[in-house]
Amino acid sequence: MTAGLSHEIERHEMLLFLANSEESGERQQKFVDSLMRNNACGMVLCAARETPQTFFESLKRRNIPAIMVVRPVNDPDFDFVGTDNFLGTQMATAHLLALGHRHIAFIGGSQSSGTRAQRIGGFTSKLLEKRSFSGPAMDCPQPGEPKRRRTGSREFVPPVPGDHRRGLLSGYCCARRNAGAA
User: N- or C-end of the chain: fewer Cβ atoms within 10 A?
Assistant: First the structure.
């Protein structure tokens, strides 16, 4: 997304400035203040988790065009560009079912995540729709910090040489369940 955005901005003889808040509302505010001081003509923003509504109200008062990405904001004044998590997970689940898999697990995301809720919705709706699912729907949320979530599967599933994508998710969840983690 960043590369495409950069190319389009350069086509209009402008520059892209990239900043990472690392989920810090304070850092996010500093970046926005800096952009405003330097007369930025707009921004594309993936708001930090737990960004208060007052932040968005402030953006509107500053009258700078802003497009939200990845995380939608419950405010009709901001346009949003993101993925359809519900449909994407439905499609992935349908693909696994079409391949004949019947023991399918959903892994990942904080239990308080809206994105995770959308994905769980797509996953379970496809299982219910197909009714060919013979195993229990296993949901294994991955708690902890993002770095911990990225490395969590390595703790429960040893690396397998070759193409081992099929069955990895089931193996991971079974290992977590057997370890008392799920």
Answer: N
The enclosing domain of 119 has a CATH number of 3.40.50.2300
CB atoms within 10 A of CB 10: 11
Domain holding 27, by residue range, is 2-81
**10 Å Cβ neighbour count for 167?**
13
Q: What pLDDT sits at residue 168?
A: 45
Last residue of a domain, one of 55, 81, 107: 81
Which tens digits make up the pLDDT trace of 49-63? 889 999 999 999 999
Do 102 and 72 have their domain in common?
no
* Domain count within the chain: 2
A 10 A CB-CB count for 22 gives 9
Q: Phi and psi (nearest 5°) for 121?
A: -60, -45
SS3 82: coil
Q: Are 155 and 174 in contact (CB under 8 A)?
A: no
Average pLDDT across the chain, whole number: 79
Q: Is the pLDDT of residue 162 over 80?
A: no
Degrees to nearest 5, angle at CA 88 with 66 and 165: 125
CA distance 36 to 20: 16
Closest CA to 130 of 173, 91, 85, 86: 91
